[in-house]
Write a structure and sequence with these properties.
alpha+beta; six-stranded mixed sheet; 6 helices; 12 strands
């Protein structure tokens, strides 16, 4: 069995104590991180190695950034960045091979304020992902990360709060649905088809977090050959209540084979 997790850390150096505590307590096999907010040379690779993980990363100063970690081994980088736009300088996609598993780590653009140029960029980026993902469907592949998309109303505690947000716009949800239409399987929904599952909550000015703002926008999509092996899934919600947490909580799945 292999346990794969995805975690938008919202600043890998600023939240390093949270990340290291979580890695040490969970010991997941494969971990994808998003929103590193650091340049390549400032990525805390030694601290991550000290808790037992090899890593590849694709950083960007102050924003974006993605990484793939593997417990007890070094991931082999396959690709950084999506094809289709040579002028795109954002660090939002990193692909690695770990044994016979292909892992794509995704930090999809948020798209706000929408409509507008940022939303247009989001849709173009999403279309590049949909197109490129076709080439990975036949392998043992997981495409996971912060998709910045709330696929359905059951993925929000209070859907009406998000009607004006790019993560809930119909165009965003349709792009996600196109990926599922290609054959990608939403692993969390394979285990929990109708349950309210959330991976993100707004920060609260009073401390803690606003539970009524819960959204599911961190997803693990698996190729058809892996879909048959999904054994379990969950969200480490407790991390959202730790000191100086990210606004996201890690989502994870267990696969066999």
């Amino acid at each position: 069995m292999t346990r794969i997790a995805t975690f938008n850390v919202n600043g890998v150096n600023g939240r390093l104590p949270v990340l290291l505590k979580w890695l040490g307590e969970t010991r997941y096999d494969v971990v994808c991180l998003q929103e590193l907010k650091t340049s390549d040379d400032k990525f805390p690779v030694e601290a991550i190695r000290d808790v037992g993980y090899g890593a590849v990363w694709h950083g960007q100063k102050s924003s974006n950034g993605v990484a793939v970690l593997a417990r007890g081994k070094d991931p082999v980088e396959r690709r950084r960045g999506l094809p289709g736009d040579p002028d795109d300088t954002h660090s939002r996609y990193l692909e690695a091979e770990i044994d016979d598993l292909i892992v794509g780590c995704i930090y999809l653009p948020n798209g706000n304020p929408a409509p507008g140029p940022k939303f247009d960029y989001k849709l173009r980026w999403f279309e590049r992902l949909v197109t490129y993902s076709r080439s990975l469907l036949d392998g043992r592949t997981v495409l996971c990360g912060d998709y910045n998309v709330v696929p359905t109303e059951k993925d929000a505690v209070v859907p009406r709060r998000w009607l004006g947000d790019a993560v809930f716009f119909p165009e965003s949800r349709k792009a996600y649905a196109r990926m599922l239409g290609l054959g990608w399987v939403d692993a969390m929904r394979r285990i929990y088809p109708g349950k309210g599952i959330y991976t993100y909550w707004n920060f609260s000015y009073r401390g803690g977090y606003d539970r009524s703002s819960g959204l599911r926008m961190d997803h693990l999509l698996v190729s058809p050959s892996l879909a048959q092996t999904i054994q379990a899934a969950g969200v480490d919600v407790e991390t959202r209540g730790w000191e100086k947490p990210s606004d996201h909580a890690p989502a994870w799945i267990d696969i066999g084979g």
